[in-house]
Inverse folding.
């Protein structure tokens, strides 16, 4: 009762300091900000704060210092590791950037733009496409995620193998620091070697070192021709050999290279029963490949040439090239339907692993056999952006399992997988980040030297531990 | 005399701690380590230390702590901003990585390698080429520079527009920290989002935060066909329009795009009187363009197609495509001879500027007119990697000028140029770094918030200010 009164008092003080328009006070209005993307977790906060510009973000930070509140910055709340979900409702606020969605400038001749953190990725991409420009970041959540969140989590997606992670698409940042000051690093220069590159600190820091309010992004010419094909292959090993061949054959113009097991079709059909399946569904494995081009280079010719070579060298058993955009969308619908199908099967283990590409096939075979052996009742599904050495190895408990049984199976599978990942010098978080979900794995993995560096950094940049405490490394970020 | 005795005593103590083999004690043997690449500056040091492995580097750091000495790390000593040149001979040692030149591993299937910091860039490139692999970093100094220095300075070069700066070619690092501990971040993973990306701190820090001892690098397939052409164009504005067109037309397979003024030919001939000039030398401006490809893409067809379009659209006035590797080398010899020719004209102002590409032509025209107006006796030469918005705008005093007159003219030109660069939100160091040469510009440019962040970072990572004090920001790095 006393705690509740305290929270109410804090809310009122926030309204006094920031105005009614910025502060969402009603707990029932907090829900969309305090529930994670998968719907697995709900939380609460003292308030949700929705500033409209950089000055207001700075004012929010100062107000929170005054009231001794901690700040969890949030973009589209589409993260997969609970990085933007408050976990101490009585002393944290959610700072939502959703009202800062202005595109400040687009410079076609410079292939750059400056956008506010709350800009929705898909809206941004469409606005740029109208001008013949391309922002390569492409993710399932792009209709909801926001560019500030993409940068804070260094998002990946399907285009990484050609264009890089978000980090490589960022030219500059504007960041509100823990003391309320604004670091203006919003340059659009492509080359700038003026000392230590401070923006790198904030990319992938999940809001623990500063609050990103605007981003200068690097653009590319819009691809004019996109060719998509679904290929049946012998196994993951061959799929990786195909990728290596394709890199050389197509000068790295491959914009996506997604691996799927045969169960992809079953799972996709469970989510979308009418989904057409354009290829026999009993090959050992599948690859969804996309080649895009502009100007003098003909993506169609490239795709046909690549497949001809790959067939000759027995890297591909069968394949279908989409003959229309509608068919290309259907091929992608299998890849995306696969995710939905897994969700429909109830709580399961989702992982986001990378190992060196040269060892990926061996890794997946080994852990696959171990899981089959130890947990024969579960379905293990390995798929993903294998061109980057990145695989989502998910484990689905059987249909009849209770929630308790599911959690037990998930825990067991996770332990086995993490052990194997360690052994292969891989990463348990290739693209999703750490957040609050992977803190234990992170604690377990980091070396004493790595920990000391992180501690020193946090102390240096956010000495009061006010920004997203509990995220990444609780022992150093929570007060 | 007393100071000399102290230095001798320190030298002897270093030998006691590290062994005779690691310590170069004789001052006359220090010279190659204590003179800058241009030969403009010479300095001295207590000793030059040449460890053979990471453990010995750590031992050097510990010994220097014991003796209260500061450490200037050095690779090939080819830097252009005095970043690796000691400036307090009585309390600094040079730590040369030159004996750590081992390639620890090459993984062809993973397109990655792990190499020690002292590996000479050209040797590394050749070793990789034998295996069909390509490390894209390409610089004038590649026969002498070393990979650790390339990473510490985030080196640029002619291939940046296709492959990025050195930062984008680094997958992992091994770093000896100021307390002698070793941070092992030597992963070859292409995607790894386990929290804050610590390696970014050390890239471009010029040895002020740690000593890089090994690097995991990202490789590409070796280009199989390289086409080179020299084009006459109307002006810089048209050259930039040509680059924009070429990006789309060739899907960013342009591996070099160098701009040169007509004086390039005069200067190159001064250095190499027999250099053949394959094109009329009186066009207003020139572009040296290179397109490289492998597999199914024919660089020759691309180059011919691009030039045909560019002629039609009047972006190019004249052009010659090299018909042999020997001819391609001759075209590059003009670009390189131009540098030598400038050196032969005696001390002059060298700059390394970037501005947003959309404003580069305007910037060069404006500052060009200002310089012609204020310093008509000097020759201003603008050339460089303009595809990245990067231009070297050098100012050459007249032949008869005394050294004092030269210094006065250089100072005046530098002031004018920096003022204009500021005005265009450009960078006074697009690729060369800060070192000791550009400290004043850096001091002048950084905002109070930027300075506070740098100070906090330095204090956090090198609390005794032992690593390369005097480099970048003396006020925060010198004790």
């Amino acid at each position: 009762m006393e705690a509740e009164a305290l929270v109410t008092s804090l809310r009122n003080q926030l309204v006094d300091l920031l105005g009614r328009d910025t502060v969402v006070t009603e707990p029932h209005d907090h829900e969309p900000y305090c529930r994670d993307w998968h719907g697995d977790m709900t939380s609460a906060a003292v308030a949700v704060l929705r500033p409209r510009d950089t000055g207001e973000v700075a004012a929010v930070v100062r107000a929170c210092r005054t009231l001794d509140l901690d700040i969890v910055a949030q973009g589209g709340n589409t993260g997969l590791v609970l990085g933007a979900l408050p976990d101490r409702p009585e002393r944290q606020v959610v700072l939502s950037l959703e009202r800062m969605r202005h595109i400040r400038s687009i410079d076609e001749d410079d292939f750059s733009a400056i956008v506010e953190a709350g800009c929705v990725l898909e809206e941004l991409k469409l606005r740029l496409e109208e001008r013949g420009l391309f922002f390569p970041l492409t993710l399932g959540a792009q209709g909801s995620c926001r560019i500030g969140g993409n940068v804070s989590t260094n998002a990946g997606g399907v285009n990484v193998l050609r264009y890089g992670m978000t980090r490589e698409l960022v030219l500059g940042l504007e960041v509100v620091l823990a003391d309320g000051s604004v670091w203006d690093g919003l340059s659009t220069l492509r080359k700038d070697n003026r000392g230590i590159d401070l923006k790198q600190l904030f990319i992938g820091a999940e809001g623990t070192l500063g609050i990103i309010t605007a981003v200068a992004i690097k653009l590319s010419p819009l691809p004019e021709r996109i060719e998509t094909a679904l290929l049946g292959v012998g196994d993951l090993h061959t799929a990786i050999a195909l990728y290596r061949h394709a890199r050389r054959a197509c000068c790295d113009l491959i914009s996506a290279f997604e691996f799927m097991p045969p169960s992809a079709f079953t799972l996709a059909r469970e989510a979308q029963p009418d989904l057409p399946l354009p290829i026999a569904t009993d090959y050992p494995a599948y690859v969804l490949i996309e080649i895009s081009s502009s100007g003098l280079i003909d993506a169609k010719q490239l795709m046909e040439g690549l497949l001809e070579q790959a067939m000759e060298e027995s890297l591909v058993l069968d394949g279908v090239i989409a003959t229309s955009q509608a068919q290309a969308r259907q091929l992608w619908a299998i890849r995306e339907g696969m995710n939905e199908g897994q969700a429909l099967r109830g709580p399961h283990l989702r992982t986001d692993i990378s190992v060196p590409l040269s060892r990926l096939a061996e890794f997946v075979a080994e852990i696959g056999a171990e899981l089959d052996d130890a947990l024969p009742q579960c379905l293990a599904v390995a798929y993903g952006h294998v061109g980057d050495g990145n695989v989502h190895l998910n484990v689905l408990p059987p249909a009849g399992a209770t929630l308790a049984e599911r959690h037990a199976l998930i825990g067991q599978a996770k332990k086995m997988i993490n052990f194997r990942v360690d052994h292969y010098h891989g990463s348990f978080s290739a693209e999703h980040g750490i957040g609050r979900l992977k803190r234990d794995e992170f604690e377990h993995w980091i070396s004493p030297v790595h920990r000391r560096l992180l501690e020193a950094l946090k102390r240096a940049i956010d000495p009061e531990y006010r920004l997203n405490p509990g995220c990444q490394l609780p022992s150093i970020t929570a007060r």
User: Anything to note?
Assistant: Chain B has a mean pLDDT of 95. The CA atoms of residues 37 and 78 of chain B lie 5 Å apart. The domain at 2-99 of chain B is CATH 3.30.43.10 (Uridine Diphospho-n-acetylenolpyruvylglucosamine Reductase; domain 2). The two ends of chain B are 24 Å apart (CA to CA).
